[in-house]
Design goal:
Strand content: 15-25%
Shape: elongated
Radius of gyration: 22 Å
Mean pLDDT: 94
Distance between the termini: 13 Å
Number of strands: 13
Strand order of the largest sheet: 3-2-1-4-5-6-7
Oligomer: single chain
Largest sheet: 7 strands, parallel
Length: 369
């Protein structure tokens, strides 16, 4: 079958779409992406071996209502271009959008031309594009149960499906031994992984600096901390690691091989973005989550509940990182391997590593009517 995917803007939209595309390609389907070459998808999609069709759209600023006119015109123009393309090359058998505004022309065209389409929502608090396109979707696929109530419609219990948030195979294939070898971490060491997303998190960096002495007093503990590119110098200055301390505390601006590093970890301290939650759950790593407090509608806290409700994580508010209870909880987990084992089993029980296959099943089902 021919499947069209619209995803763009941020890695949180694009990486789940690529995970689905990999699964669909392995099942023998032809996958084409629709997005903006000037944005992140213009880099990530070709790197993964998929073609990207240019769709030039812009969102609108709610504080400047007149920008909606330009946005609507560009959606209309993009749909006109898609009409020409599909007349020449044939229409897709199904399409799916991952929440960015770039999905609106593609899914709008599908609606007008009776091509089935789905949407996938990564977060617990859905974005505007997905809420706009949900009513005519053949399926609304969600990552966490908290998003269900937004999309449910009376008399159609099958409209919303919990598939989980697809994770790319390069992450799911993470290997503990390979990760530890790359990091230079012994097999018998306890490894704490700290990251705040691609931009890092100042609160986490400051919290780690405050706990340095206490953490390094734990026998056999190793720390890998990703500060974010903009926070590295500040974090390095705050930690002031000696050569002996730096041998146990790997401070870096960014982590490239996240699959292997996650697999190598015994405990994760992280923000609670949708992609982070999905990857942590897919690898089954116990976690301490500190949601970003200024996320829209506090959706990172709701994201985190997906793991905490399952017993796979513990949750602290951003302003609690400076409190003694935070340090006590972090150290307590690092020293309690049996509790971490229970949390790991709870995370694995969520089945996040099969989300791409579950979503691909829904796409195939919609395409076949």
């Amino acid at each position: 079958m021919r499947i069209a995917i619209a995803a763009g803007g941020t890695a949180g939209h694009i990486n789940p779409a690529l995970a689905l595309a990999e699964e669909l390609r392995d099942r023998g389907h032809e996958v084409t992406f629709f997005g903006r070459p000037s944005k992140l998808e213009g880099t990530l999609v070709p790197q993964a071996g998929f073609s990207l069709v240019d769709v030039e759209v812009t969102g609108f600023d709610r504080s400047r209502p007149w920008t909606a006119l330009t946005s609507l015109y560009r959606v209309w123009a993009a749909k006109r271009d898609l009409e020409r393309r599909f007349k020449q090359e044939g229409a897709p058998d199904a399409a799916i959008g991952f929440g960015a505004y770039v999905e609106v022309p593609l899914l709008g065209w599908c609606k007008e031309n009776h091509v089935p389409y789905l949407i996938h929502e990564q977060n617990s608090v859905p974005g505007l594009a997905n809420k706009m396109m949900a009513p005519a979707a053949s399926r609304v696929c969600i990552s966490v149960p908290a998003a269900r109530s937004v999309f449910e419609r009376e008399g159609d219990p099958d409209h919303v499906v919990l598939t989980g948030n697809p994770v790319r195979r390069s992450v799911i294939a993470g290997d503990r031994a390979r990760g530890r070898a790359a990091l230079g971490v012994p097999d018998d060491a306890t490894l704490l992984l700290v990251f705040g997303g691609s931009l890092g998190a100042r609160t986490l960096n400051e919290g780690m600096a405050a706990l340095k002495g206490r953490l390094l007093s734990i026998d056999g503990l190793r720390v890998v901390q990703s500060t974010g590119k903009g926070g590295y110098d500040e974090a390095a200055s705050a930690l002031s690691l000696t050569d002996a301390e730096a041998a146990r505390w790997d401070l870096r601006p960014y982590i490239d091989n996240m699959g292997d590093v996650l697999a190598a970890a015994d405990l994760v301290l992280s923000r609670a973005g949708a992609s982070s939650i999905a990857e942590i759950a897919a690898l089954g790593v116990p976690s301490v989550l500190v949601p970003y407090p200024f996320a829209t509608a506090d959706h990172q806290t709701t994201n985190a509940r997906y793991l905490t409700d399952a017993g796979a994580a513990v949750l602290f508010k951003d302003d609690e990182v400076k409190e003694p209870a935070f340090g006590d909880a972090l150290v307590g987990l690092l020293e309690d391997s049996s509790r971490r084992a229970a949390m790991r089993a709870a995370a694995k029980g969520l089945g996040q590593d099969s989300a791409a296959a579950a979503l691909a099943d829904q796409v195939e089902s919609s395409a076949r009517g």
